[in-house]
Write a structure and sequence with these properties.
Layout lengths: L17 H11 L4 E4 L19 H6 L20 H4 L5 H6 L2 E4 L6 E6 L2 H10 L4 E4 L4 E6 L5 E5 L2 E4 L5 E2 L9 E2 L2 H4 L32 H17 L4 H16 L7 H13 L4 H14 L3
Parallel strand pairs: 5-9
Antiparallel strand pairs: 1-2, 2-8, 3-5, 3-7, 4-5, 6-7
Length: about 290
């Protein structure tokens, strides 16, 4: 996949929102796209898909399982199909859209999102030159090749590839390079401590003691399921509920190495089903980690 170097310059038809015009041009060049609302967040799940009524969590792993015709489920809604993009179900979203995003991993690309001058300086010292797009606060460095997405891999640096979206800010400049090992290494976690044998004193150390306190995977699964339920049942103060739940999960499970991206995805999905934007989820998660000194 070649990142689009240009989009058509023909005037936008009067009946076609400018965002949809851009999205169609990008989709024609192979980029899966989706509308973004004000604040750079994805459109919320439709009424039929709220509260995970459509089993939304699996859909975040396997786009296409949900038969909902609306642009639900954040990055998983991204498509190159012009018939879907111009459908009546997507029309309200395009009328509200403030910008267009694309799913980099859906077309074998990775965006290294550099949020400040220090992050850019680090990238220039560490990563090979590649296609660069200016952002509000920094730069997007775009590479050929996909990888696991993760926010906060270094101060001011996020990785956007599989299961993520990046805002379309123009074609950028420079020749796109292959995804380097140095970028892939940013999301590699340190090995988790070895699990102690059942019945040993170490198995009952409090969380944060450097060893895993979980006697069985069912303990962690029950904790994540309870957290999902707490978020789902919230009827008010959703922001605070999400933050407090993230904080509780991290306090118990955040230091032992058992918490995986899959678990975090489940929590984010539950929060987004209650109307939280992805950025709000990321902020709440980051704040919870900072509160606990992680």
């Amino acid at each position: 996949m070649t990142h689009p170097t240009d989009i058509p310059r023909d005037p936008c038809p009067a009946a076609l929102p400018a965002t949809l015009h851009t999205a169609l041009a990008l989709a024609k060049q192979g980029l899966p796209v989706l509308p973004l609302r004000e604040g750079k967040g994805p459109m919320g799940n439709c009424r039929a898909c709220r509260e995970n009524a459509c089993s939304g969590r699996p859909n975040m792993k396997t786009p296409g399982r949900c038969v909902c015709p609306a642009p639900c489920h954040a990055w998983a809604a991204a498509t190159t199909d012009p018939h879907v993009l111009t459908s009546a179900a997507w029309a309200p979203a395009w009328r509200q859209a403030a910008a267009v995003a694309y799913h980099p991993g859906g077309t074998a690309l990775t965006v290294v999102d550099l949020d400040n001058v220090d992050a850019i300086a680090w990238a220039r010292r560490t990563l090979p030159a590649t296609r660069t797009v200016a952002t509000t606060r920094g730069e997007h460095w775009i590479y050929r090749g996909s990888m696991t997405s993760r926010n906060g891999v270094r101060p001011g640096i996020d990785i956007k590839s599989t299961m993520a979206y990046a805002r379309w800010l123009g074609p950028g400049t420079g020749t796109m390079a292959l995804l380097p090992a140095a970028a892939r290494a940013l999301v590699v976690k340190e090995p988790a401590p070895a699990r102690p044998a059942p019945g040993t004193a170490a198995a009952h150390l409090p969380s944060g003691g450097g060893q895993c306190p979980h006697r069985s995977p069912a303990y962690l699964e029950r904790g994540i399921a309870m957290a999902e339920q707490q978020i789902t049942k919230a009827t008010s103060a959703i922001h605070n509920t999400v933050y407090r739940t993230f904080l509780a999960v991290l306090r118990v499970h955040g230091r032992c190495g058992c918490l995986t991206d899959t678990h975090v995805d489940r929590l984010f999905t539950a929060a987004q089903a209650k109307g939280e934007g992805l950025r709000h989820c990321e902020t709440a998660w980051t704040n919870a980690r900072s509160q606990l000194g992680m």
